[in-house]
Design brief:
Layout (H helix, E strand, L loop, with lengths): L1 H28 L1 E3 L9 E2 L2 H8 L7 H24 L5 H7 L2 H4 L2 H15 L5 H27 L2 H8 L4 H29 L3 H7 L6 H11 L2 H34 L2
Antiparallel strand pairs: 1-2
Length: 260
């Protein structure tokens, strides 16, 4: 009984520490005037909502993070299938190389790759930002897909080819449905990692490629609590929306697989 009470207290404290800041951020998002020590704002305003809707870092910028999620997962699937299903010289080196971006500090990586992108003409462009985010997200996508590919195996795919199916048809009709939950999980991870990037976006995008994370930090530093709160709400809300969409799709797939 004491153990259950302790777990209940820990869970309650965790929920309180999560939801209380969110409630305060929501109040600050619509606060017009909120002098200390008032518990609630004296006046309310929609100024910040209008600023958010007309700002340059609104909903369309989700597309760049979704692009990173799709490309990172594609790289993860191909790398995982190559290293798990085939034996070739240097396979261990490929596995180690896929983790190298995690070993290089973000500041060193951003400054180094910026010089390369300037020479390639990709600096201050959306394509350059997507490429940099892809390098950062790929190790996580590869790790997820490697574990999923190892668990699924190639048994069904080999049986389909024995029965006359080609490699592509065998993959998409047998292995791909089993990999799909892992693919969606990898896309969720890739999206969140790309969406939350600040320093690399600032360095490579040169301030011209606007994201919510890039706009949010200056408002926090300037002390404008209302605008920083509304952008924080939009940042967390949009990321959670995409995450729950992916998780809902995964749940539906798994639920369909359990049906006889």
């Amino acid at each position: 009984m004491k153990k259950h009470r302790l777990m209940g207290l820990v869970l309650s404290a965790a929920l309180f520490s999560i939801f209380l800041p969110m409630v305060l951020i929501l109040l600050w998002s619509v606060a017009g005037r909120w002098p200390w020590p008032g518990l609630l704002p004296e006046t309310y305003s929609l100024r910040t909502i209008k600023e958010l809707l007309t700002g340059s870092a609104s909903l369309p910028r989700l597309l760049s993070s979704l692009t990173v999620a799709v490309l990172g997962t594609a790289v993860g699937v191909m790398t995982a299938r190559a290293t798990e299903n085939y034996g070739f010289p240097g396979r261990s080196l490929v596995r180690f190389g896929s983790l190298l971006p995690l070993l290089v500090p973000g500041t060193v990586f951003a400054m180094g790759i910026q010089i390369t992108l300037i020479r390639l003409g990709l600096s201050d462009t959306v394509a350059g930002v997507v490429l940099v985010h892809l390098v950062s997200a790929a190790p996580y996508c590869i790790t997820i897909m490697t574990d999923v590919t190892r668990a699924v195996g190639t048994g069904l795919e080999e049986q389909a080819m024995v029965l006359g199916a080609g490699p592509v048809k065998a993959f998409f009709q047998t292995t791909f449905p089993s990999l799909l939950p892992g693919i969606l999980s990898s896309m969720s991870m890739g999206f969140i990692l790309s969406y939350s990037q600040y320093f690399t976006t600032l360095m490579v995008g040169g301030g011209r490629v606007k994201t919510i994370a890039l706009v949010l930090v200056p408002y926090i530093q300037s002390g404008d609590r209302s605008l920083s709160s509304v952008y924080s709400t939009a940042f967390v809300g949009s990321a959670l929306l995409v995450f729950f969409i992916f998780e809902g799709i995964i749940h539906r797939i798994q639920k369909g697989e359990r049906k006889p």
